[in-house]
Amino acid sequence: MNGFSLSGVQADQQLARALAEQAGQMLLRLQSEAVRDHVPAHTLKDLGDASSEKMLSTWLHEARPADAILSEEAQDSSRRLGASRVWIIDPLDGTKEFSEGRSDWAVHVALWNSGELTAGAVALPGLGTVLDSGTPLPERPDPSKPFRLAVSRSRPSPLAEALASIMNAELVPMGSAGYKAGAVIRGEADAYLHSGGQYEWDSAAPVAVAMSLGFHASRIDGTPLCYNQPDPYLPDLLLCHQENAGEMLESIDLLLKTNNTRPNGLFMDGMYQR
Ligand SMILES: Nc1ncnc2c1ncn2[C@@H]1O[C@H](COP(=O)(O)O)[C@@H](OP(=O)(O)O)[C@H]1O
Ligand SMILES: [Mg+2]
């Protein structure tokens, strides 16, 4: 396709997709060689994060030299706070799962432009797919089947566990925020709930993709997710179908009110004690 025929938004979207896909393929090769050569998990973790960061930042600097970048794997700079265009990237989301030779990990590339996420792609190399605003949606699941709530496999949020219990929902544990958001988009889960800690790079691309496809995405109190903030800590997220958002947010509100013993909330600040 001739790049000059694309509008700015389409060109950014195409760039986000190409970058996520290329980095994902490189990581997939790295992972399979490392598994073959019995490379220790902690070495593969560092190698994966560093190689994907290098690839994405080099290509972004070449393709969009004027834009700022916020990345999990690079030193943050205050320059991004005065920039109108900021690429928010997580070069390897689900690093733990990647290092264990699993397939639930992702590459996140999103563009924040003047207050909005305007482009995004989530590569799921373990599934051989890249999700973006053009991803076709599967048929909706049978509503008589139990509601499936995607949660972290290594640190499931107590709020998600409590919500699943009152909704009579099944918990579906998986690694990676992008993979869990992808499970909702791909129809493998009905919602993704996270609380207790996360950063802008964990959710920006998954949220950009999901919202462009018409899904609901917000903080767990229903307020908008705001990106390119001075502090990139963005600890919680609800991603679901629009028709489930109202009921889920009401139930979450009830749970937070009945369990709220500190200003940030028992479930919200990651300090929950069993
Ligand atoms: N309590 C917490 N504090 C900070 N980051 C968290 C977190 N819980 C999950 N995350 C981050 O969110 C991503 C998805 O986590 P999970 O697989 O547990 O759902 C991971 O990103 P990375 O793999 O990029 O570090 C993980 O580090
Ligand atoms: Mg991440």
Automatic annotation (TrEMBL):
CDD domains (alphabetical): CysQ (cd01638)
Catalytic activity: adenosine 3',5'-bisphosphate + H2O = AMP + phosphate
Binding site residues for Mg(2+) 2: D90, D93
Record GO terms (molecular function): 3'(2'),5'-bisphosphate nucleotidase activity; metal ion binding
Gene Ontology BP, a term: 3'-phosphoadenosine 5'-phosphosulfate metabolic process
Gene3D superfamilies with a match to the protein in the record: 3.40.190.80, Fructose-1,6-Bisphosphatase, subunit A, domain 1 (3.30.540.10)
The protein's required cofactors: Mg(2+)
Protein name (Swiss-Prot/TrEMBL): 3'(2'),5-bisphosphonucleoside 3'(2')-phosphohydrolase
Provenance organism: Arthrobacter glacialis
